[in-house]
Amino acid sequence: MKKVELLVPAGDLERLKIAILYGADAVFCGGKQFSLRAKANNFSLDDLKEAVIFANKHHAKVHVTVNIVPIDNDFAKLDEYLLALDNIGVHAIIVSSVYIMKRAQELNCHFEIHVSTQQSITNNLAISFLKQNLNINRVVLARELNINEIIDIKNKSSVAIETFIHGGMCSSYSGRCGLSNSMVDRDANKGGCAHSCRWVYNLYNDNKLVSNQKCIIASCDLNSVEYLPLLLKNHIDSFKIEGRMKSAHYIATVVSAYRHLIDEYYHNKELKHNVIKYYQKEIQKAENRITYSGFYNPKIKNEALLKDLNVENPTQTFIGLVIKSNDKNNYVTIEVKNNFSKNIILECFMPSGKCITTKILDMIDENDDQLEVARHPKQIIKIKIKYKLPVYTILRKKKEL
Amino acid sequence: MEIVVKINNYDDVKQFNNADAYLLSNKFVSFRYSFSFSLNQIKKITKESHLNEKKVYILINKIFTNDHLIKLEAYIQNLISIGVDGFYFCDFAVFVIAKKYNFSDKCYFYHETFLRNTYDILTYQEMGINNIICSKDMHIDDINNLPIKNKEQYGIMVFGYVSLYESKRKIISNFIKQNNLDKNLVNSTNLSIKEETRNQHYKILQQNGITSIFDNNIWCYLDYSQQLAKHINIFIFDCLFLNSEYVSKVIDLFKKSLNEKISMNELLKLDNSLSFTEGFLTKRVGIEK
């Protein structure tokens, strides 16, 4: 049976590697040109080359977002860029511009063409139209569809179907929002979205304040774990997690949870309630926004789709990333992410999904001076523990409430 | 030049004798309108309009899921049999259905953000979508790149409140429910939102399950009408939130402006309480402010 692809965002090379090691079948990332999420550390061509080599080594794929809605001047170096991506061997590009789709075909590029969710595709006639005219390989469906509509499209589709399963959601139909353009002169369709939907608004009628309460227009983040069995049963081709701006901790935690859920389903042909519950809890360790199953629920109560502003509630804090495994004295080299003291109970979350809690036996800086507290993010230090930790192990501690 | 006006009600047909075509809405296929015209009303308006050598277009700006496609096809068949002159659409499904009934030449692609460069516009034309309404954020420099030989097939909205945001989330209903407010508030056309650090009020409208937020100023391309007319043959006027009589006078000014320079002061004389912007016609926005 063909297994669903777990497609994961990668904001930079480090997160790309973490995504793959923690269970992604494919990653998507943006290049320096033609990509939304301008604030992500988008990949240079050299980075993309390294990404493809790493992905190939781990039997994973690299999809590159070429998803801006361009203006005329943007096209000047398009051919050069598409050929460079092809030469590097990326596996797919994610596109909203029909000219870019057409041009990739004309240049005989070998990568697949995936239609971005910005096209807001919600029916099979639209898919057939794009397939017939542009020979596309895959459509990333609009995020406004419910579970029944997604399944119906999959059953009738001649191309692969990708659906979002987790992460941030545009409150507007994707690609159709100009709030940022108008309010702060930043072009959302070229990667400049200022997230104006997350600002604080009040509602007025005839220019009179209706209520002192804030009027929420931002969306909850998506978490579709409860719909996973149905999506898997109906052979959706790819599950996409959103969040190129998210931390390595978030990526590792969420990817690992979905990896285990998917594998469990293929192994047992079902997902038991307690398994779902367990991984929901795992995801909460890194989740920094309120989540909901979004439009997946055909009977959704609308108010649940709108979120309070910038609520953060992860149950664990990401404190460090292992960059060198244990030396002969059992010292592990780590990059500090958030401050922590030596006397914490440490949770070590490994790429295999295995999680252990332990004490730090000793902590030293690069000059081998003793440390009681690691205060500086990005500082390289060593900690001594009794377990062997592989590179890219996530170190975290329970959040103090 | 074809002057198309999105009308507010049945009586507007008489009001807009200076237009060449009317753009009508219906709640099954449209959102962001002042009035939903029934099929019978569309039929009657089409008949009257054709007698007066005016055209009737239907705004089909909703996007559709599979379970609506059968009804959509039946509706489109009805519209074609009534004799309407075309559709303004943004879902490819509408184009595919229209093509089945040999009506694709009368379809106008009206995607408000994706049609802002000549490369994509020409590609859509190669794909058979011949008539294109340029996106609200297409810059004048890029419009100047549109091939003049295709001029008859290009349109642009030149006057009206422009929507900046479309969401399937019922933002007003949500607010009413959360705060135990009067449910009728959702029907108000005078609602606006204001961001706490800014002075501007942005009109907000929830209609047919879709919430739209509009720019705080009316978009007006009066100063550029002659330049636009070199590459574009369809000027669209939207009456939403505006008085029809007023918009009719604005159309007269625009028509006049095609032959002589008309200053914005002339427009302000019609109603000096309104404020205007050229939107993104002459302003490039980037990634950083």
CATH topology annotation of chain B: TIM Barrel
Task: Tell me the distance between the termini of chain A.
Answer: 45 Å
Largest sheet of chain A: 8 strands, parallel, barrel
Fraction of helical residues of chain A: 25-40%
SSE class of chain A:
alpha/beta
Strand order of the largest sheet of chain A: 1-2-3-4-5-6-7-11
The name of the CATH superfamily of chain B reads Aldolase class I
> Strand share of the residues of chain A?
15-25%
Overall pLDDT confidence of chain A: 92
Largest interface pair? A-B, 74 and 72 residues
CATH class of chain B: Alpha Beta
Compute the CA-based radius of gyration of chain B: 19 Å
CATH C-level class of the largest domain in chain A is: Alpha Beta
Mean pLDDT reading of chain B: 96
**Proportion in β-strands of chain B:** 15-25%
State the helix count of chain A.
Answer: 10
Explain what the structure shows.
- With 401 residues, chain A is an alpha/beta fold.
- Chain A has 2 domains: 5-195 and 219-305, Copper homeostasis (CutC) domain (TIM Barrel, Alpha-Beta Barrel); 316-398, Elongation Factor Tu (Ef-tu), domain 3 (Beta Barrel), CATH 2.40.30.10.
- Helices cover 27% and strands 23% of the residues of chain A.
- Chain A has 10 helices and 21 strands.
- Chain A has helices spanning 13-21, 45-57, 78-88, 98-106, 124-134, 147-156, 179-184, 228-233, 248-268, 273-284; strands at residues 5-9, 26-30, 61-66, 92-95, 112-115, 138-140, 160-167, 201-205, 208-209, 221-223, 238-241, 291-292, 316-324, 331-336, 340-341, 345-349, 355-359, 362-365, 373-374, 380-384, 394-398.
- In chain A, the strands form 4 sheets. An 8-stranded parallel β-barrel of chain A has the order 1-2-3-4-5-6-7-11, surrounded by 5 helices.
- The longest helix of chain A is centred in the middle third of the chain and has 21 residues, at 248-268.
- Chain B has a single domain, classed as TIM Barrel.
- An 8-stranded parallel barrel of chain B has the order 1-2-3-4-5-6-7-11, surrounded by 4 helices.
- Chain B is 30% helix and 24% strand.
- In chain B, α5 (118-126) links the parallel β5 (107-109) and β6 (131-133).
- Chain B has 289 residues and is of the alpha/beta class.
- In chain B, α3 crosses α4.
- Chain B is built from 10 helices and 12 strands.
- Chain B has helices at residues 12-15, 39-51, 69-82, 92-100, 118-126, 140-143, 171-178, 225-229, 244-257, 264-270; strands at 2-6, 21-24, 55-60, 86-89, 107-109, 131-133, 154-167, 191-195, 201-207, 210-220, 234-238, 276-277.
- At the A-B interface, α4, α5, α6, α7 and β8 of A face α4, α5, β7, α7 and β8 of B.
